[in-house]
What does this fold into?
Amino acid sequence: MPTTSRLTLRSYRNTDEEGWLRCRLLAFLHTDYYDDVKTVRTADPQLAVCLVAIGNDELIGLIDVTVDGTAATIDSIAVHPDHQRQGLGTALLNAAITELSPDITTLDAWTREDTAANQWYVRSGFTENFRYLHVYKSWDEPADGFCAPHGLSTPLEVFAHAQIADENPLRQRFRRVYVCRQYLMHLTGSSSVDGVQSDNGRGPIMQGTP
It folds into this structure.
């Protein structure tokens, strides 16, 4: 793992949990995922790569990657706001790719409409592969059409998925409607961005500078 006097990329440890939660919370605060708050780091049996960035004894970045067969997915990637746009996200991405088994052929990630996040994935060598909608119904929005089991009220708040074809009518009805995009990277071949390349034994990996 890369190490300097100020920055270390290493595997996640159980003692990192509080710093991991704080970093993720602050990184998401001003994004479309602002209310995706965790109070406990989720234990996922499919987690294969869990890395953190430590700067001056503080956890300032993280990446978790799950694996299902030959496909890998970025479950969480976050950089503390005070350390964004310094290449740390790219360093975490490339370190995670290096940790993946050579059998893994694709890496994907899902994100909403934040411009900086979408641009970073494109610069990093991902291409959009699929899109659908994330829809939230708030307590003060119409509940027409919603139902609940006997004994419960009509849902006050709802999070749902929807087809992209229904975007316009849903935006007219609900305030929070997001396009969720899947970005996909094939982990074969060679590419470079800004002249930077990384070799994980299967070919160079694209980098960007978030």
The two ends are 20 Å apart (CA to CA). The longest strand covers residues 58-68. Residues 17-28 form the longest helix (12 residues).
